[in-house]
Design goal:
This protein is α/β, with parallel strands linked by helices. The chain folds into 3 domains: about 140 residues, no CATH class; about 260 residues, P-loop containing nucleotide triphosphate hydrolases (Rossmann fold, 3-Layer(aba) Sandwich); about 110 residues, no CATH class. Helices cover about 30% and strands about 20% of the residues. A 10-stranded mixed sheet has the order 12-11-17-10-18-19-9-20-21-22. It has a 6-stranded antiparallel beta barrel with strand order 1-2-5-4-3-6. Strands 7-8 form a two-stranded antiparallel sheet. A hairpin with a 5-residue loop joins strand 7 and strand 8. It is elongated and about 95 Å long.
C-alpha cells in the first residue's frame, strides 16, 4: 500500500533518509488512455512508501528513437511541477465499498497518482515522457533547470518553496530591461498584500541584485491603512531564530530598512505638525503652498474621482488650471507662498476657492470657465467647494522659512513612506496624484531610466478603476505603459484585479495572488492560474502567495518570511501575546 509518511524535517537522520529516497525514483509515468502522457503534462504512479505533494518539482528522462531529425542526443529531460494529487481504491465500484475494504472483506489496493505540469524540456524537443519511465524529485541544479532559474542573469529571491528552497525572479523583468511592474491581489487583512510588496523591496535592496545601483535606487511607499509602514526602519522584536534562518536561506539580512524617510500630512491649524498617532519622532509633516498648487497645475487632482469621459467638468478644471498657472507667474513677490487673484491677496485654500468662484461663475461675470455651459461650471464649483474641508489644510498660503523642509523629497532616503491613511478619500487621491505626477515629471526631465524608482500603492482599484476617466488614472496608466522606459516600476495591490483598469494589470510582468474570494478567482484577470491554483487561492494562509512570472509557464506557490521590521508600535517595544500569521 502507498503511504504518506514523510521523514521528519530538521534532523540529520531525516536529511540522510531524504537523500536516500531521492536517489530512487518516486514513481513511474502512467500511460493509460485516461492518463495519457503529453509534452505539456503527465501523470505519475507514486511508488509504495513514497509520496508526492503539490508543488514538488520532478524530473523524468525519456529516450528518443534513433535518427530523430533535429535531436542532439538520445534522451530528453522533462521537468515539471506537481499540481494535483489523488488517491483511489483500485478494484472497487461503489462508494460504500470503502467500508468493506477497511474491514478486510473486499480486496483492494490504494493507488496514488500525481499530475505534473511540464515547465521545461531539455533539449527543447516536444515529445511526451514514455510510460514506465522513472520519475525523480528534482533538487539542486536539476531544480534550477526545472524552474528556469539557471537562465536568469540576475535573480532576486522572492520567497521560499514549501520544501524550504529559495524561489527566484528575474531582475530583468523588474527593472525594465525586458519588462516591469508587479500586481498583487488578495482579500483585505488575509492576503498580506502590502507585507509582500514591502518584502519585495527588501529583497531588491538587500540581495545585492541591484549591485552598485542599489545606493541610488529609490522607492515611494504609500501607507494607506493604519500606521504599519511608518516603522520600516525599526527592528521587529517578535522576530524568531527560525525567521532569521529563512532570511539566511534567501541570502537576505534579517533586519529593517536602513534608509527610510517618513512623511505624514500636517494637522489642521497654524503649525505644520505631522498628523500621526503612535509615531511622531522622525516623521515630517507635508503640505503644498498655494503658489505651488497653482503653478504646478494640481487642481485636476481635486477631481480625481472617475468620471464619464464625456463629462465637461474636466475641461473647466483644465481651463481654470491655466489661469491659476498664469496667476502664479505674475503674483508678486514670486517667492511668496500666497498668490494674488483679481487684485485680492489669497492666503489660504478657502480664500482660493472663493476667488476661483468669482473668476469662473458666469453669473458673477467670471470667464475662467471658457465656453462651458453654466451648469457644467456650477458642477465644477460644487466639487471644488466639497473638496475644501478635506484638502484645505494640505494647501497653505502663510509665509514660512522652512517650507522646503515640508516638501516630500523621495531622493532623501532609499525608502520614502508617504502616510495618507488618516485622510479622506478625496485627499488621498490628491496626494497620490500630486506625488506621482511630480516624480514622473522629474524622471522625464532627467531623460534617463536610472536611477530606478519603485512605487508601492495599495488599493489600486481606487486610483485606476476599471470604468471611468480621471487625472490620477491617467498618471498611473502613463507609469504602467511608459514607466519601464523611464525607470519607474509600479508595485500595485488591490483586493480584486477585476476592478482595476485592464491596461494597468496587463503591463505587469509579475502577477501575485494571496487569499482570493472563490468567485473572484474565476474571473478572466486570473487566467494565468491553473485550475488547481484557482482552487488553492481560496485556501491560502497569510504569508503564502502564488506568483506567476514570464519565464516559468506555471504559477509557483511560495512563502515569505515574517517581517524583520516592525509593522506596528507594539512590535517596536516589547510586547506579550503578539499575533503572528504563522503561530
Amino acid at each position: 500500500m502507498n503511504g504518506y509518511a514523510a521523514p521528519a524535517a530538521g534532523t540529520p537522520e531525516a536529511v540522510a533518509e531524504l537523500e536516500a529516497l531521492d536517489a530512487a525514483p518516486v514513481g513511474l509515468v502512467l500511460g493509460t488512455p485516461r492518463e495519457a502522457a503529453t509534452p505539456l503534462g503527465f501523470w505519475v504512479h507514486v511508488a509504495a512508501e513514497r509520496y508526492l505533494q503539490l508543488d514538488d518539482v520532478v524530473q523524468v528522462r525519456t529516450m528518443l528513437p534513433g535518427g530523430l531529425p533535429g535531436s542532439t542526443g538520445r534522451a530528453v529531460d522533462v521537468y515539471g511541477v506537481v499540481d494535483e494529487v489523488r488517491a483511489v481504491h483500485e478494484g472497487v465500484t461503489f462508494e460504500s465499498d470503502v467500508q468493506l475494504v477497511r474491514d478486510g472483506l473486499l480486496p483492494a489496493e490504494i493507488a496514488v497518482a500525481a499530475h505534473v505540469a511540464v515547465t521545461r524540456l531539455e533539449p527543447e524537443i516536444f515529445v511526451p515522457p514514455l510510460p514506465g519511465s522513472a520519475v525523480f524529485r528534482a533538487h539542486g541544479a536539476a531544480r534550477e533547470v526545472a524552474l528556469c532559474f539557471d537562465g536568469m542573469r540576475t535573480r532576486v529571491p522572492v520567497g521560499l518553496s514549501r520544501s524550504g528552497e529559495p524561489v527566484y525572479a528575474n531582475l530583468e523583468f523588474l527593472d525594465g530591461t525586458r519588462g516591469a511592474h508587479v500586481n498583487i491581489s488578495g482579500i483585505s487583512g488575509v492576503a498580506t498584500k502590502t507585507s509582500y510588496a514591502v518584502f519585495l523591496l527588501h529583497a531588491l535592496f538587500g540581495s545585492g541584485a541591484l549591485g552598485l545601483e542599489a545606493a541610488n535606487t529609490r522607492s515611494i511607499v504609500f501607507n494607506v491603512k493604519g500606521e504599519d509602514l511608518l516603522f520600516l526602519d525599526q527592528p521587529n522584536r517578535e522576530l524568531r531564530d527560525s525567521d532569521r534562518e529563512r532570511y539566511a536561506t534567501l541570502g537576505l539580512p534579517a533586519e529593517p530598512f536602513a534608509s527610510v524617510a517618513c512623511y505624514a500630512p500636517v494637522r489642521r491649524g497654524a503649525q505644520p505638525i505631522p498628523d500621526t498617532g503612535a509615531r511622531l519622532e522622525g516623521v515630517t509633516g507635508y503640505f503644498w503652498t498655494l503658489r505651488e498648487f497653482c503653478a504646478n497645475r494640481y487642481l485636476r487632482f481635486l477631481f480625481a474621482e472617475a468620471d464619464d469621459e464625456r463629462s465637461q467638468v474636466g475641461y473647466v478644471a483644465q481651463a481654470v488650471e491655466t489661469q491659476l498657472a498664469l496667476v502664479a507667474r505674475t503674483s508678486r513677490p514670486l517667492d511668496a507662498a500666497s498668490v494674488e487673484i483679481g487684485g485680492r491677496l489669497v492666503t489660504d485654500f478657502d480664500e482660493l476657492v472663493e476667488a476661483i468662484a468669482e473668476q469662473t461663475d458666469p453669473e458673477q461675470g467670471g470667464g475662467w470657465g471658457g465656453r462651458a455651459a453654466a451648469g457644467t461650471v456650477h458642477a465644477f464649483l460644487r466639487r471644488l467647494e466639497a473638496a475644501a474641508p478635506h484638502v484645505g489644510h494640505l494647501i497653505r498660503g502663510e509665509a514660512s522659512e522652512d517650507v522646503a523642509s515640508h516638501r516630500i523629497d523621495w531622493n532623501r532616503a532609499q525608502v520614502t513612506v508617504v502616510d495618507i491613511h488618516r485622510l479622506h478619500d478625496r485627499a488621498k487621491r490628491f496626494v497620490v496624484g500630486v506625488v506621482l505626477k511630480r516624480m514622473f515629471e522629474q524622471k522625464e526631465e532627467r531623460g534617463a531610466a536610472r536611477p530606478l524608482v519603485f512605487v508601492v500603492l495599495d488599493e489600486l482599484n481606487k486610483y485606476a478603476p476599471r470604468e471611468g476617466h480621471s487625472p490620477i488614472k491617467d498618471v498611473l496608466l502613463d507609469i504602467a505603459e511608459r514607466g519601464r522606459s523611464m525607470g519607474v516600476v509600479l508595485i500595485g495591490a488591490q483586493q480584486t484585479a477585476s476592478e482595476v483598469e485592464p491596461r494597468v494589470v496587463a503591463n505587469c510582468a509579475y502577477r501575485v495572488v494571496g487569499r482570493l474570494d472563490a468567485a473572484e478567482a474565476h474571473r478572466n484577470e486570473y487566467g494565468f492560474l491553473t485550475p488547481a491554483a484557482r482552487a488553492r487561492a481560496s485556501l491560502l494562509k497569510p504569508g503564502s502567495m502564488i506568483v506567476h512570472q514570464p519565464e516559468i509557464p506555471v504559477p509557483l506557490l511560495l512563502q515569505f518570511p515574517f517581517p524583520a521590521w516592525a509593522t506596528r508600535a507594539s512590535e517596536v517595544a516589547p510586547a506579550v501575546g503578539a499575533i503572528r500569521w504563522d503561530s
